[in-house]
Amino acid sequence: MFNLWKISFVIVALFFLVACKQEVTKDTLEVAAKEEKVESVEVNFEEKMIDMYLPEENSEPRDSLVTHVMLHFSSNVIEKPEDPFQVEDIYKVFHDYGVSTHYVIDRTGEIYRFVSEDRNAYHAGEGKIEGVPKYENNMNRYSIGIELLAIGTKEEMMPMMSPELYDTISSKHIGYTDKQYDALQDLLIDISSRHHKLKLNRNHIIGHQEYAPERKTDPGALFDWERLMSDFEN
Asked: For 129-178, what is each residue's pLDDT tens digit?
């Protein structure tokens, strides 16, 4: 009887060890697969980005940790109302005016890199975040700027153009595209993987109009913040 009980115990123990080994192996494989998938996504994301670096005088070396991303809209609608979103035109505007941004997302979701993240782009200008004095007129040091090629509402565009000119713009140029939202979400995830102080929430992903409401209107009323943040905030 004793030997039979002992043999049964050994068999149960062996089954338990085999099951544990299988579970550990399964977990290990799943983790490895996830890591491989993440690495693959990062490589593909980097490969599809298009570099169009502005001259270094349009930016400066970064000396502070990134805590925010600031969103903007851009176009060349004043010069080319019928074709306002040529990236080369946007580049020239930044270049000629001595300003800059880190990334530009065109209407198809293509991402262009104008300034590397280890440099401060000149995109924020004067402004402030209530209750945080260090950001006042100083957001370039702490943020990454992203321009989406888009045009806002008539009211938002009035500081830049006449109502008559606005009325000539094709409706397809107004607001944002699905591919821009998708690309922006991917880009934000990618950026946050390198900057641990940057949280993917509305306290850290802000619009230019929030920082400088007296001067700026972008990304404007047509930008769907809920759609952008739905995958980030639980």
From this structure: 999 999 999 999 999 999 999 999 999 999 999 999 999 999 999 999 99
Of 120, 65, 124, 114, the closest CA to residue 94 belongs to: 114
In this structure, are residues 98 and 37 in contact, taking their beta carbons and an 8 Å threshold?
no
Q: In this structure, how many other beta carbons lie within 10 angstroms of the beta carbon of residue 74?
A: 21
Sorted by where each begins, the domain ranges of the chain are 1-48, 50-229
**Cβ burial 185-201 (10 Å sphere, 16+ → b, else e):** bbbbebbbeebeebebe
Options 3.30.70.20, 3.40.50.300, 3.40.309.10, 3.40.80.10; CATH of 50-229: 3.40.80.10
Q: Which of 82, 136, 147, 164 is catalytic?
A: 147
How far apart CA 162 and CA 154 sit, in angstroms, is: 9
The residue type found at 17 is L
Q: CB burial class (10 A; 0-12, 13-18, 19+) of residue 173? A: middle
Q: Give the pair of three-digit tokens for residue 3.
A: 């030997």
- Is 147 catalytic? The answer is yes
Could you give the CA distance from residue 225 to residue 229 in angstroms, rounded to a whole number? 6
Distance, in Å, from the CA atom of 156 to the CA atom of 219, rounded to the nearest integer, reads 9
Cβ atoms 135, 128 nearer than 8 A: yes
> For the whole model, what pTM was predicted?
0.82
